[in-house]
Amino acid sequence: MALIYYPLLILYWELLLRALDEVNPFWGISLIQVLLFSLAAGFMLAFIFRIFRNVKLARILSGILLCILCFLFFFECNCISFYKIYYGIVYALSMSGQVMGTFGSLAKEVALSNFGKDLLFILPLILYFVFAKKIIPDKDGKQRRNTLILIPFIVLYLGGILFSRLGPNADVYTYAFSVPASVPATGLLTTFRLELTYQIFGTPEEKTGSSSTELWTPAATEKKAGSKKAVSNNSASSNLVSGNNSVSGNNSVSGNALEEAEEIPVEYGYNAAVDFAALIEKETDPTLKSMHEYFGSREPSQQNRYTGMFEGKNLVLLTAEAFSPYAVDKDFTPTLYKLANEGFVFTDYYQPGWGLSTTGGEFSNMTGLIPMWMEGGHSFIRSISDYMPYAAGNLFGNAGYTCRAYHNSAYEYYDRDKTHPNLGYDYKGIGNGLVMELGGWPYSDLGMLEATTDEMINGYLETGVPFHTYYMTVSGHCNYSWGANAMSAKHKNEAMEAFPDEDPTIQAYKACNKELDLALEYLLKRLDEAGILEDTVICMGADHYPYAMAKTDHDYYAEMSGIDDTAASISRYRNTLILYCASMKEPVVVDTPCSSIDIMPTLANLFGIEYDSRLYSGRDIFAENYEDEVASETMPLVMLPVSGGYSFVTTAGQYDAYKRVFTPNEGIEVPDDYVDQVRAIISDRWKYARLILAKDYYSKCIEKNLDKNTP
Q1: Among 117, 124, 184, 345, which one is most buried in terms of CB atoms within 10 A?
Q2: Continuous segment of H or E residues that includes residue 315
């Protein structure tokens, strides 16, 4: 009976997990891998427990193992249901103490809400304890036949290996392995096997042969047809914000204020600072040489009419927990509305679902690199031991700024006490220097601003040294109900009055974001009282959309947005980027597609800080050296990881990876292989973002500045 029970049990668990997954599709070619590996694992378990000499011990050990496996399956089912991602077992174990300490009540609520699903995983386990003596029978003198069980195991396992290495998911199985991508592609048990293997022996590296691509030179770029020009001096930048301006998808700029600037041709340079040719000449490591060749071949972004616009000003950068466009309301959250509509107004901004919850969005906002899972952890953890000069704190610290970071929750959560100092910040959270009245969970963003603005503003007034301050907020954290969210409860009456026809979940979400609005209102007030409001830039993006609203029983986020979409849809990741300075006399509308990895290169250009744009995964949003119909390294490119690959948005149109359909924008014609070209660019961006961290690449190509904030 073991030959039947174990293979069918594993297959049942794998298929059930796949069926309950609302993010990834059930059907697809990856189902073949899941079938092969599931049955192989089942036959291996049957073999192991049949060869035990002590039958009673075999039954006990089998029961313990099956209980563990059952728990892992419904644990991952809860993760994909609530967080919309699968978690690696190594990472989950490392975070378990922090999760239970900070989010224990939330974890309990998630488990209770998914009890019906969990029960489906438990039912076949109950059958084991009822029929254990039949599944693992007493010795019958035919034990030699047990070796025959290895035959189907070997056939199925080798078939799975062959299919995985030669099939469409070969990269996920090897060098591009990550738990969120591997579970839908190969199954949960295979994913855990690969995770533990790569944790011990390291993830296989993709072969990076010598590139035949020519290195970029300014002269070569000038020869390109249609190369666009822009203004790079500060006087032109100030003119730009004195009228009613707009920046369109192909970055043409209109407005009376620009006429005078456009009459005068202005030659300008590129945001390129590294001599890759010199690095290639002396490099002996083949992987590093390939990286030098790749980055050296990329065309950098051109400087433009916005270069240096905010030079010398202060910067307050925020990552807002679970922020979305629907938290912005003219009457209910007037400060958010003001900031979103009176500075740069981004009409086509996206916060991708990177698959790492808060830490992924935060990493992309602060570093300009694609976040990903790496050998049991993720990009932010991997960056702890790396030189990170282009991360926000180090970039501004090296430019002479005083850099501080704050988080109004446990200071060590997501290892911020290690990651943020390495990014160049004097970091404080609750437990290591941030002192504020806590109250109920989640804690107050207003309280965090009240506790920190004196340190920020007084330091600047006393020394004249510009500041860059970073905030990771928490008031918008789930769950969204009056009883489970202290910030929602605080503003319950206001939200119910403002949105009487909305569901309580939606009301609670908007209510807790009222606290963020009050925090920003307080910040503007304090900056104005100090006389430095016009000298301070405020930039804010989300970490992720509020995915906790997309519950199994009902998608409240779709109800709130009025869009019939899912987590696989491009529209689900549309968001609001705030980039505001009170010195701007009129708003500037920007409809260029952009995302969170574009924040840092855009800020670097706006503040006139020297950097090499080729070393970011994103781009300066205002750079103009691209053509709409041409897939290029410099084009606007929003990468959205969804099941089935990367969806993307460019100025030419949108590609839906889930439906495998490209929809061009009106009036745009692209080559037949446009999608393949863009997908190749995305593949390289992903690959080299990983290698930047894996190889500590910044330390290999950028001279360390030991006199400033960098470690």
Answers
A1: 184
A2: strand 314-320
Alpha helix (H) residue ranges in 312-414: 334-341, 357-367, 379-382, 392-397
Tokens of 381: 């953890």
Domains of the chain by start residue, with CATH: 2-201 (no CATH), 234-701 (3.40.720.10)
Give the Cα separation of 222 and 220 in Å (integer). Answer: 6
Report the distance separating Cα 370 and Cα 647, nearest Å: 14
Give me the percent of the chain exceeding a pLDDT of 90: 65
The torsion of the CA quartet 553, 559, 560, 566, rounded to 10 degrees, works out to: 80
| SS3 of residue 705 by DSSP | coil
pLDDT(252) > 70: no
What DSSP element (H or E) covers 542?
strand 536-542
CA distance 662 to 573: 17
Q: Predicted confidence band at 228 (pLDDT cuts at 50, 70, 90)?
A: very low
CA distances from 633 to 88, 275, 290, 395 (A): 32, 18, 17, 23
Q: Is the pTM of this model over 0.90?
A: no
Residue type, 553: D
Amino acid identity of residue 54, one-letter, is N
Structure-token match 């709409």, residue found: 628
pLDDT band at residue 105 using 50, 70 and 90 as cut-offs: low
Task: Look at strands 373-374 and 574-575 and give their pairing.
Answer: unpaired
pLDDT of residue 239: 40
State the Cα angle at 76 between 73 and 78, rounded to 5°.
110
Query: What are the pLDDT digits (tens) for 131-183?
Result: 888 888 887 555 556 677 888 889 999 999 998 888 877 878 887 787 878 88
| Calpha distance 337→186 (Å, rounded) | 45
Query: Looking up tokens 């039958």, which residue turns up?
Result: 55
Q: CB within 8 A of 567, min separation 6: which ones?
A: 22, 23, 84, 353, 547, 550, 642
188-201 vs 89-113: helix crossing angle, rounded to 10:
150
The candidate with the shortest Cα–Cα distance to 152, out of 35, 235, 55, is 35
At 674, list the tokens: 């446009």
Nearest to 161 by CA among 186, 183, 180, 137: 186
Do 366 and 600 form a contact (C-beta atoms < 8 A)? yes
- Residues 325, 576: Cα–Cα separation, whole Å: 5
Distance, CA of 633 to CA of 316 (rounded, Å): 29
Looking at per-residue pLDDT, the higher value among 239 and 383 belongs to: 383
Q: How far apart are CA 44 and CA 36, in angstroms?
A: 12
Nearest Cα to Cα of residue 120 among 78, 180, 65 = 78
**pLDDT exceeds 60 at position 559:** yes
Supply the pLDDT for residue 685. Answer: 95
State the Cα–Cα distance between residues 428 and 292, nearest whole angstrom. Answer: 37
The CA distance from 413 to 687, in Å, is 28
- The helix/strand count (H/E) of the chain reads as 28, 19
Q: Is the peptide bond before 442 cis (omega within 30 degrees of 0)?
A: yes
Tokens of 315: 């910067």
Write down the mean pLDDT value for the chain: 87
Contact 45, 6 (CB under 8 A): yes
Q: Which residues contact 235 (CB under 8 A, 6 or more apart)?
A: none
Cα separations (Å) of 389 from 9, 383, 426, 541, 700?
Answer: 50, 11, 15, 21, 12
**Coil, strand, or helix at residue 376?**
coil
Vertex 24 angle, CA 69 and 510, to 5°: 100
Strands across the sheet with 653-656, in order? 638-642, 645-650, 653-656, 661-664
Binned at pLDDT 50, 70 and 90, residue 253 comes out as very low
Please name the residue ranges forming H helices in 530-658.
556-561, 599-606
Considering only the C-alpha atoms of the chain, give the largest distance between any 2 of them, rounded to a whole number of Å.
Answer: 97
Structural tokens at position 215: 């290195």
**CB-side exposure of 18: number of CA atoms within 13 Å?**
26
